[in-house]
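Tutorial sheet, problem 5. The two components below are modelled jointly, 658 residues in total.
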Amino acid sequence: MTRTTGPALALDDLRVSFPSAQGPVSAVDGVSLELRPDEILGLVGESGCGKSTLANAAMGLLPESAEVSGAVRLGDRDLTILAERDLRRIRGDEIAMVFQDPSTSLDPVWTVGDQVAETIRAHRDVSRREAKARALKLMREVGIPSAEQRYGEPPHRMSGGMKQRIVIAAALANDPAVLIADEPTTALDVTIQAQILQLLDGLRQRRGTAVLLITHDLGVVAQVCDRVAVMYAGQLVEVATTEQIFSHPAHPYTEALLRAVPGTGEPGAELTVIPGQVPDLAAPPVGCRFAPRCPFATEECSIRPPLEGDEAHGAVACWHPRSRDREVTAR
Amino acid sequence: MSALLEVQGLVKRFPAGGPVWRRRYVHAVSDVDLSIGRGQTLGLVGESGSGKTTVGRCILGLYRPDEGLVRFDGRDVAGLRGSTLAEFRRRVQPVFQDPYGSLDPRWTVGRSVQESLEAHRIGSVQDRRDRVRELFATVGLDPALGDRHPRNLSGGQRQRVGIAAALASEPELIIADEPVSALDVSVQAQIINLLQRLGRDLGLAVLFISHDLGVVEHVSSEVAVMYLGRVVETGPTAAILRAPEHPYTRALVEAIPHPDPSRRFRHASLAGEIPSPVDPPSGCAFHPRCPIAQASCRIQVPELEPVGEDHLAACPVVARVTTRPTT
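Model answer (structure tokens):
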């Protein structure tokens, strides 16, 4: 497999809309984002912000009805224009995905070991014996105790945490350059979540896999991500290092989201709430989609702010960014 | 002053198959004591299978305890019949994770709330309509939303309706089981603020059941931590989060993903999985995963013992270490 020095995965002005009775729903609206080799990039946002649509678009898993424009570049190929046959060759090999509920990713009537081995054989010309040996090695690597015994077990005999480890083993089977993990720990208990997050972090360090970690949980982001991209109503509002996002959030939405998390401020104190509601994406606000709920919005905000910034301070799509030390130079 | 709610030695088992002469049981709750004063909030924390939901359901009378007793305002709940039982149900109300399950999808949400007034025979027909509007206002909902069906409301709005329905009978105790777990962060913050304001303004006592220690830290000054059916530690939330005594609580606190990159997980997380409550480990149920377990932990079920001010932990190993200087 070839690894280039450029981004592992690049989204270029990606737009996705779905038809609905109220007209097209603009779920992802002009997102440009680069995932670098061996980083964990967190993609954060609340329900309906388009983060899972974005992941499915990157994997070529959107339904036929979806209207897609822009590009998803993996190496020098654009996945949005590849035929399904070619996509199938790439998925599970160069780019792999882990979903929230491991039960839905595993076949209930197959043994978990065979499912990992099958992923290898689907993409590599190896013998069954060789595939089994590699699958066992992967199962050990993701921390499955007594892997030999558990190889022959069906998924229902395993706990949620163990099943998620199997799914991760299958995803890593062909050493992909990119792993997209969509809420991989949301269905797990907090002590098990910690184990899985540490596992992902360790795998990234050992293998250099670039991970796009999609989550609604800012705690999860703070624990393992190198950089964070924040989405609101289909648009990317801020991209910066994890330290920057948490110490100097620049977008008013990012700032409000951080203040809404219990456990960050004084116990018992009133939590900050964001007034209003998420906009209807069939008729989204013109310009900045957060403007109707934003305390700092002005007339300017009816023009969509570009995502601008630099490496050190991160990028923000806002005409009135919050932290002064991150203020982008006005054009 | 006696507590509003007292739970003593609560035990609840569920049959889990096997032949009659060798029936297997899920030991959901084993020997749990809790107490909540008027207007007080107690957080009940635990992971899957800890029995926290079963405790809540036993208090509500949805499950009949196998052993132990639930005393509300000085009276044993198991002995309540007829009008005294109706009175108990008026005074203790549940709030669930997603009220989708408790709201009739065919009814407008206004009618659902009105139904809870009717069920408790509160007010005349006209009074009830006015009262529903008042309740909507109390929970911060536009009364006009009363004409909508549950599916036409957002998750946060539905949870407000669920709270309005719970408040209809003017209860003194709310059993809130994961009331914000299904909600987005910004909506979660609204509901937490609402519950806290109601607790203050209406003098409500709340049993706040949650898997999320961050949320519990925010809403309650007292907490009880459960593991496999037993309370392993209880006391002031601040003290327990700052210096957890029980090795399980310690692991749980360390596993909290703090929204602060300078507080990343430092230790290797707790190894292993939560054992099945069908066949829980002998002695201290935590011993197979415990880093400081001793031979005796496999035999003896540890009792809650004082380890600090109003602070109890069910671990003889840490209790010995902690109490040595003072004894």
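Marking note: The interface with chain A takes residues 47-48, 154-155, 184-190, 192-193, 196, 211-215, 217-219, 221, 237-238, 251-252, 254-261, 263-265, 268-271, 273-274 of chain B (CB under 8 Å). Full credit if you identified this.
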